[in-house]
Amino acid sequence: MQILGVGSRVRHSEFGDGVVINVKSTSYSITFIEHGNKVIKLDTPLEIIEAVELDTDLVSLFDVEQSLTKILQKWMDATEVVPLGDKWKGGKLILKPGRSDLAPKEMTIDSFFHKIVMTRDRLRVLEQRINASKLEDEEKVNIQQYITKIYGSMTSFNLLFKHTEHYFVGEKSSSDNA
């Protein structure tokens, strides 16, 4: 059995095309184009598109990507690509006023979704800037609680997201913690 190195391009029967981002003793971490990151056992059948030799370097591509992503998000307002749920692709949002003398407003769901994702990303950057600020800890906590409530208000839009890891999450009730 050939052990693939970080950067190897593969095809999985269920998840499609992907790139090996980390190699562990029993598994690969692979980022798939359509399905995101998955942990796959080393003995899982994979079609090898391009093999990269296994490296003995202790720093994985995944570690480098994570560090770079954090830096970019902190300093450049970088945003991740977040997929819209398939059932909404190509759809329209129609706002019909209660008064008949006013025209309805239409926009694509893709445009509306992009604005929601940008709002979420800007809230995340705001959180990072607050945490990095010279504010007193108590002030940071108070502002963080307010931002958490904003996330809670945005949970209605979670139905638009394709993957649950992109959802807005507000405050957890005490029953959620049990």
One letter per element, helices H and strands E, the order comes to: EEEEEHEEHH
- Stretches where pLDDT is under 50 for at least 5 consecutive residues are 173-178
Distance between the termini: 45 Å
Shape: flat
Fraction in helix: 25-40%
Rg, rounded, reads 21 Å
Give a quick rundown of the structure.
By secondary structure, the protein is of the alpha+beta class.
How do the strands and helices of this protein lay out in sequence?
Blueprint: E1 9-12, E2 16-23, E3 27-32, E4 36-41, E5 47-50, H1 61-76, E6 92-95, E7 105-108, H2 109-132, H3 137-153
Antiparallel strand pairs: 1-2, 1-5, 2-3, 3-4, 6-7
Helix pairs in contact: 2-3
Description:
Helix content is 32%, strand content 20%. The protein is an alpha+beta fold and 178 residues long. A hairpin with a 3-residue loop joins strand 1 (9-12) and strand 2 (16-23). Helix 2 (109-132) runs antiparallel to helix 3. The radius of gyration is 21 Å and the shape is flat. It starts with 8 loop residues before the first strand and ends in a 25-residue tail after the last helix.
Which characteristics define this entry?
single chain; 178 residues; five-stranded antiparallel sheet; two-stranded antiparallel sheet; flat
